[in-house]
Amino acid sequence: MNEEFLEQAKERARVAKEEKEEKYYLTSIEEAVSDVYLSDMDEDLLKKFLQHCNISDDLHSSSAINAFVQLGIFADIDGKITPTGIGDLLFGKNPQLKFPNALIRATIIRDGKEVVETFEGALVKQPEQIEKWIEDNLDSWISRKKAKREKICEYPMEAIREIVTNAILHRDYAIEGAPIYVEINDEAIVVKSPGLPVRPLTLEQIETFSAPSLSRNPKIIYVFDKFDLAEQRGLGFKTVRSLPKEHNIPLPKVTFDGINIVMTMPFEYRQDTRNDIDAALERGVDFAKTHQLFSKKEYAVGLSIAERTAERQLQQMTGLGIVVKEGSGPNTKYRYK
Question: Which of left, alpha, beta for 111 (phi over 0: left; psi -120 to 50: alpha)?
Fold first, then answer.
């Protein structure tokens, strides 16, 4: 009586086993790439990576090669070792030959002048290059508030570092012809990173800097972490979330232009006549974004303002649909909408 059922069950088990054994990739760059060879890899970078991983074996030893295969930097195709897209991007001598979009185009537009620069090469080398360029092109001054003098930039470099590094780490390298863009103008620093967030992350989570740790490029993140270029725990937004409180500057504005996630980092709070939001209220909007659910008292304490002022601003934001009111009386809370 069960013979037909058992045959069906065996067939389902066979199909399930084949599907499980089939290689699954988050993105196409995890696959082996054609026309890229081991000789195209930067051996010095690979040796440094092994050192960071506490692997003392020779670069060409079977144990080192096996480690690179396990990490997805190399692939073993029928006994032949070949670089993957990730391996070429991270450690290639010239990965732009295969991935011409894997670069950063930087522009500064100030005082009526425009200067353009391009940063390419292995991904692990790009953060230092672009950070130095940004720091060199931002206004700065020497602070004497502490016993030791320190250089102060017009925008906190640690926040810029997090946003630019995130652009490199989380962008979609499968989108052809789409590099990362960085622009410095008189009002803001703008960073464009190709691709929407990997599902199930949403643009709204990025906008409020509350996104959990999830990326389409976890292996790139792992290598950056070993080089002390990034943290694996999350998107690195802790410093960014503190900008309004620590530096009295706005949170970056997050938008999507159809190809890129666009992070606009204004240098200061300004009147926004389009939405009838003045600078004081914009600080309140930033507080709401980063706290999500809060009371009037928490809002007042967080912005160091009187509760009467807090109540007036919350009424304005409720009327504009920025926050919604939940509960009543002493238990009233406000939720960012």
Answer: left
Locate tokens 């303002």: which residue?
A: 305
Domain locations in the chain?
13-97, 104-266, 279-336
pLDDT in tens, 233-262: 555 577 888 888 888 899 999 999 999 999
Q: How many helices (H) and strands (E) does the chain have?
A: 13, 13
242: left (phi over 0), alpha (psi -120 to 50) or beta: alpha
Rounded to two decimals, the pTM is 0.81
Cα(210)–Cα(162) distance, rounded to whole angstroms? 14
Question: pLDDT (tens digit, 9 = 90+) per residue, 259-287?
Answer: 999 999 999 887 655 555 677 888 999 99
- Specify the pLDDT at position 24: 46
Is domain 104-266 annotated with CATH 3.30.565.60?
yes
In order of 96, 100, 104, 249, the CA distances from 178 in angstroms are 12, 9, 10, 30
Evaluate whether 189 touches 134 at the Cβ level (below 8 Å).
yes
Q: Please, where are the H alpha helices in the chain?
A: 3-21, 43-52, 62-70, 85-91, 126-137, 157-170, 203-207, 218-226, 238-241, 243-247, 279-291, 296-303, 307-319
Neighbours of 201 (CB within 10 A): 18
- Tell me the sheet residues that pair with 272: 277
Average pLDDT over residues 114-142: 90
CATH code reported for the domain at 279-336: 1.10.10.10
For 48, 291, 311, 333, the CA distances from 302, given in Å and listed in that order, are 45, 10, 13, 15
Among residues 57, 48, 187, 18, the alpha carbon closest in space to that of 109 is found at 187
Instruction: Please measure the distance between the N-terminal and C-terminal CA atoms of the chain and give it in whole angstroms.
Output: 59
Residues comprising the chain, all counted = 337
| DSSP-assigned letter for residue 272 | B
